[in-house]
Amino acid sequence: MRKTLSQLKKQYQNNDKIVCLTAYDASSAHWVAEAGVEVILVGDSLGMVVQGHTTTLPVSLDDMVYHTQMVQRGNQQAWCIADLPFMADATLESALNASARLMKEGGANMVKLEGGERVVPIVNALSALGVPVCGHLGLLPQSVQKQGYKVKGRDASSAEHLLNEAITLQAAGADMLVLECVPSKLAKQITGQLSIPVIGIGSGKDTSGQVLVYHDLLGLTVGKAPAFSKNFLIENASIQAAIQAYVKAVKAQTFPEACHEVG
Ligand code: KIV
Question: Phi then psi for 144, rounded to 5 degrees?
Fold first, then answer.
């Protein structure tokens, strides 16, 4: 049986950490779900770790649909989030069309989009149409050309801005929020103020769950893996065991450790 949004919400209410991992094809999705990962993210990070680009910007909507289809053929158990790629949410109409494709053709259960105030009308409309939505705040890879790969919310005013954006996204109807590279103290504060699950990456241990990129977890990343990630294959004999170890570590709150915090 596939995880439902209401099961994830109950899990969140019971303070049972939500385990999320990216996957991009059927076989990886199969083993990720088998290992007990509850949420699979078909992230546009596939542009970097699968397609070999230096950013996520070249990823097309067709690419996202294609990879989501593959993932959902291999995944029978996990809730599946698919990313709206760069510029798919440039207008309300394009965002609705892209979300429809990700759900109808790709088989996604939820769509994720990057940004705060700008995406509020889109979140509102999707939510009213019955589409589960995940927001994404903090480091925004689709804005890298303007903002760089930088930790967000370090000073008081940007921290307050992020908190307000999170509250606004929730009010617009977001069902979940990814917080990327936010200081752990702020991630804890945002998580505490919201009543939807907050899934952290590089944002400390006090969020409602964690997400990692599959290739980082298995040491497959070409070049330097992000400091907040961990290669679970080093201490495990197989890919399956490494993913299970990640699930166990998130549940037991032994991952992330202080050394994985961005400061
Ligand atoms: O695309 C992706 O994999 C993501 C995660 C880094 C959260 O958005």
Answer: -60, -35
